[in-house]
Amino acid sequence: QTNDDTPPIDTKSRFGNPAFRDFYTTCEQNLPTWLAGIVPTGHIEQVSTYLCESFGNRRRIDYGTGHELNFIAFLLCLHKLKIITPSDFPALVIHVFYKYISVMRGLQMTYWLEPAGSQGVWGLDDFHFLPFLFGSGQLRTHKHLKPKSIHNKEILEEFSPSYMYFECVRFVMSIKTGSLRWHSPMIDDISGAKSWEKVNLGLFKMFRVEVIGKLPIMQHFMFGTLIEFTGSAPEQTDCGDGCGDHGHVFAFGQEFPDCCGIKVPSAAAAAAVQSDDKFAKPRDVFTRPIPFD
User: Fold this and answer.
1) Nearest CA to 47 among 226, 247, 220, 243?
2) Bridge partners for 11 per DSSP
């Protein structure tokens, strides 16, 4: 509803729409109230911060796997507070997390959120990783659908409403032209695996190494009493990219990592840009697929 109440600003720019900052501010101000009936008073600030951060970065107007991770942190906080239990986990993935991805697709199309880290380098598409991981888990025991099935357009269209992995691939194919190998080589490579179990295990390992294990992502992650950090204190330095007010922890040899990258418009933004004498209109993003190059 907040998305609907905060329309994008007409602009000729293909980069992130500044109306997203108004959306973010509205969420930041109202989330403590929205969560008041669910989360204990003493933990509302921490829990609402994780949820607000899961929508993207207000200053840079971008989104990436680090923001996606914040939504998992939000759910973890609810688990630690015993608001959700292990018996809820399947429904959290299939319904709650999938709804979150749907909301984020809407925000990405409305405000043209830019891929965090220049090109969404840690994501399997420009923004996300976890729906591929959870989606492959959803298919682990399927007897007929195989990883290579993503290359069959009829299968992709028929099963994308029911299976998260197929929907993610379908979305990528809907906004980019050319073959999957050309514009999404990692997804194409994964399709060569013999089983979904191998895909799922491989993505788990990849997530730990390429997302949780990457300094440019985790240096922006916030810790508190619910999700604690044990280690050295952060060095309060400014990377110059306007990536937030919290400090950065730099590893040796990475004193000035390119954590936020250069501004790159999203595929949705590029697809929606119209002629030079007209304003680009966010939300009208599927006028045509865009070529990878």
Assistant:
1) 226
2) 280
Give dist(CA 44, CA 96) in Å, integer.
Answer: 19
DSSP-based three-state secondary structure for 93: helix
Rounded CA-CA distance 164/135 in Å is 5
User: 80 near 226, Cβ under 8 Å?
Assistant: yes
pLDDT in tens, 158-195: 999 999 999 999 999 988 888 888 888 899 999 999 99
Decide: 40 and 97 in contact? Cβ < 8 Å.
no
For the chain, report the end-to-end CA distance as a whole number of angstroms.
35
d(CA 280, CA 269): 8
Amino acid identity for residue 237 in this structure: T
What CA–CA distance (Å, rounded) separates 256 from 237? 10
CA distance 265 to 208: 27
pLDDT of residue 249: 43
Q: Can you give the three-state secondary structure of 13-77, one letter per residue? A: CCCCCCHHHHHHHHHHHHHHHHCCCCCCHHHHHHHHHHHHHCCCECCCCEECHHHHHHHHHHHHH
Whether 67 contacts 218, CB under 8 Å:
no
At 246 the pLDDT is: 46
Query: Cβ distance 256 to 114 under 8 Å?
Result: no
Instruction: Indicate the pairing of strand 114-115 with strand 62-63.
Output: parallel
pLDDT digits (tens, 9 = 90+) for 57-97: 999 999 999 999 999 999 999 999 999 999 999 999 999 99
Phi-psi region of 261 (alpha: psi -120 to 50; beta: other; left: phi over 0): left
Residue 255, classed as helix, strand or coil, is: coil
Beta bridge pairs of residue 225: none
Sign of torsion over alpha carbons 282, 160, 194, 93: positive
